[in-house]
What we know:
Oligomer: heterodimer
Strand content of chain A: 15-25%
Bound molecules: flavin-adenine dinucleotide, iron/sulfur cluster
Largest sheet of chain B: 7 strands, mixed
Distance between the termini of chain A: 15 Å
Number of strands of chain B: 24
Largest interface: A-B, 22 and 16 residues
Number of strands of chain A: 13
Low-confidence stretches of chain A: 1-5
Distance between the termini of chain B: 43 Å
Helix content of chain A: 25-40%
Number of helices of chain B: 22
Shape of chain B: globular
Order of helices and strands of chain A: HEEHEHHEEHHEHHEHEEEHEEHEH
Number of helices of chain A: 12
CATH superfamily of the largest domain in chain B: Thiamin diphosphate (ThDP)-binding fold, Pyr/PP domains
Structural class of chain B: alpha/beta
Amino acid sequence: MGLGNLSNSQSQISNWVLKHNLCVVCGACVGICPYFNYIDGKVMLMDFCTQETGKCHQICPKLVIPDVSSSEAFEMQSSMGTYKDIVMARAADEHIRQHAQYGGFTTAMLIYALQKAWIEGAVLTNKGDENSSTGIFAKTPNDILACSGSRFNGSASLSVFNRCLRDNQKKIAIVGLPCQLIAVSQMENLSDEGEAIKNSIALKLGLFCTWALDFRRLREYLKKQGIHQRILKYDIPPPPEESFKVLTESGWIQFPLQEIRQLIQYGCTSCLDMTAEASDISVGMAENQAGWNTVMIRTQRGFDLFSQAVQEGVIETCSIPEANRIHLQEASLSKKKRGFNQFQTIRSEL
Amino acid sequence: MMNTIFQKNGGVRLLLQGNEAIARGALESGVMFCAGYPGNPSSEIIETLAEAAKTLPLYVEWSVNEKVAIEAATAASFAGCRALVSMKQNGVNVASDFLTNLTLSGTHAGIVLITCDDPSGISSTNEEDARWFAKLADIPLLEPATPQEALDMMRMAFDLSEQIKNIVMFRSVSRLSHTRSDVVIHHLPEISSRAFFNIRQSFHTFPVVAKHKQRHEKLNQAGDQFEISEYNTYTGPEHPELIVITSGCVYMYVKEAIDMLHLNENIGILKIATTWPLPKAFIIKHLQRSNRFLFVEEVDPFLEENIQVLYATAAGQLGIKTFFGKSSGHIPFCGELTPSIVLDCLASLFNIKRPEIQFQTHALTLIQDITPLREFGFCPGCPHRGSYYAIKTALLWDNRDGFVSGDIGCYTMGIWPTGFNQVKSVHAMGSGMGLACGYGKLDRFGFQQPVITVCGDSTFFHAAIPALINAKFNQADAFLVVLDNNATAMTGFQPHPGTSHTVMGNKTEPVDIEAICRAMNIPVSVADPYEMLETTKVVYRMLQECGVRVLILRRKCALIQNKEGGFPYTMKVDIHRCRGESCGCNRYCNRIFRCPGLIWDENAKKALIDEVICVGCGICAEICPQQAIIRL
Ligand SMILES: Cc1cc2nc3c(=O)[nH]c(=O)nc-3n(C[C@H](O)[C@H](O)[C@H](O)COP(=O)(O)OP(=O)(O)OC[C@H]3O[C@@H](n4cnc5c(N)ncnc54)[C@H](O)[C@@H]3O)c2cc1C
Ligand code: SF4
Ligand code: SF4
């Protein structure tokens, strides 16, 4: 692994990821050492570290090299990774659905897992204040509910996961974007600590993701548009609406998606994963079905928990229209090709 | 010791520091009013006089800055009281605006401006020769070579000032100010004069040309006296091969070098103690003795240039002469002179081998192995370490290439690793804020970097206030952080307007920095630099704001805290938690944070608290990523 002849662990991140603005603010490198900080939507290098064999470069998702040689290698069939089942689902509890981004599957699933002691807590993303959202380790149903809804920027929530590991926390659930789950896989594969890390994780819930925004630039943009209040909720309605909506004290405000796309984190443009392939269960919105989620069951662990939740009536399901599945497959494939080409371009510039 | 310096009787021999000799000389001259601003190497003069004020009838103050000091002292002169004003070389720059006008208006009772220059800038931001101000402002300049001369020439300075009705400049340098030698003191006079401003006199600069002319006449008067001054001497053979022309304490280096080289038969020394105006006839007389001359003086070629001009006026009569010195490359232009440099120079001019200075090489070999390599660093427990750590962190969080505009005080060390290399510029007192006024208006040219200006409490009063007002008036985007440690710490804890007592020990109402800012309608916050994370958040928040804003980082200087009862904690490193060099820490505390109290145990490969050095401020507990540094 590694790109170029960079001499130590940290410099692979500083001279490649940070310098080329590839960081997607997953937070994997934050919280293991004092050299990286996360604040207000950004990961920063604080001081120079001389470690040759440190962890940071081994876990950063932006230092993972795709194992194909051309974008032609990607196929429709495998563009969403491996999964056992794909369905539409939602929280049975209407209260949860009201708070949640779409169907509240994520929130309901977590609360259920907590109550059944599958997990002891969950690494989530809070709502933030005037500063950006950050990671939080939620240990009660209320904590979990308070984190529902999507913030469309990297929140470095894996830094909280790192802190959990330091504190020897067990039965951890992680809700993460695709890049975050890639980082978690990298952690699980570390030669010395990997096994222990793996054993401390009880559930990986992945969120679908096309891109995330640069929080500071988004705040700047909103300020320029005269919005200084706290944002209570964000939404990107499915195509063809082409808009980005924010909920403030004074109601929903809409912005052209075209302008918002200028604020996408550069690192996201070279990402190949849309459906969080490295998760137990992946969750996204359901096309043309407001109030529902698209859910992909990927592992046995995910399947067991999901079945139990459905059985006990916590989660309601229905089958997914074939057209929706195909659209998702197409979108995933095109993200892979786009991301790979962009990765090649960036790499050739090093 | 102290009371013997102030004894009434003369004729006694005392061991005095150069600055004490200057102070005693002033007392023997009947000085009544003394003002100054602290700065190495001058501070002990005012401090000694303040001590004297406990038993003698004089007034002493630390002024807010050197310009105010000279103005206050001048008022005393106008009102018939002998006055003294003392400062370091940079201080003369501050005072110079008033000085160059004062020398037109003239003075009444004797008044002396003492400048203590700091060759090599050992505790200064610059290396400067303040003597040029004497030439610039047409005032007499005296340069003693020894503490005894310093004491004796003080009397001469006051008398001369009173005769010509103009201020006289008196120059010392670090080595003279801080050397100790035995000095014979004289009687202290009875002071009986009453302060009174005679309203038939007036002091102003008009008509300017007439006053300028008068100033030159006064200077000529002084020149006449200098021709016969006992402090200008020639020693040596009647017609030596070389004459060294020198002034100030380097005279002693010259004597020593000539002795060591056994060149007493070959070299003469022309010592000039009245360096401006030059005693022309006296010098020309001695120029006839030889054809080769070497100038040895600190810092600039002041005598060297002025005497060569004088020589040009008499070259026809004197014939061809050769001059060596800084211009010829025989004496270095920059840096403090040492006996060794003079030795080298003379040896090369006479083409002989210089003797080794035995004790020097010996001392060097002795200490070589035992003295640790040391860099400039904040004391253990210093609040500035916490302040800069917070500033550094906040600027990185902010991520817009922000930087610090610095100022003068202990915190100038922010230019070095001890302050995480945060400070990017340092000039004169208050300049950090002045620069901030400029950065704060560059947005129209695309400037987007945040700038934090730091200045100490004493510096705030000294010269930052006008710049702060300017920023407010011109609506600059400026963020001032006042590092308020309740002391003029760098120069030795002199009181300043923010402290509650004066140098004479009187209680005084402290001037409140917050109130000053509020009066200007400038938002001001206060934080504790020991609470680094909290402070970082405040700095970060304020970085996002615009306009003029002030943050006071308040925590007493570690040395004051020590005096007032010390620190709350005993520190320990939990070696089971400490990760040492491994991933997750990599010696963060002693590699990055660098308090000298945090050291490295080579054998255990773990961090360690140096119990002798650590004072127990406890702030490092916050920075350890593994929480291995524990407050007990
Ligand atoms: C940046 C981003 C981009 C997305 N892009 C797409 C997309 O293109 N297509 C699509 O179908 N779905 C996308 N999603 C997923 C979608 O917005 C919902 O999060 C998902 O459908 C789950 O819905 P829910 O009703 O179960 O959520 P909820 O029950 O409300 O739970 C949401 C969970 O997401 C977590 N969360 C919120 N913000 C973040 C964040 N920034 N990083 C990590 N975790 C976070 C919270 O901790 C919470 O637990 C995206 C989500 C994010 C955060
Ligand atoms: S992508 Fe994640 S691991 Fe890589 S630098 Fe950014 S926050 Fe750190
Ligand atoms: S407690 Fe820590 S920071 Fe304070 S003096 Fe001791 S070692 Fe230095």
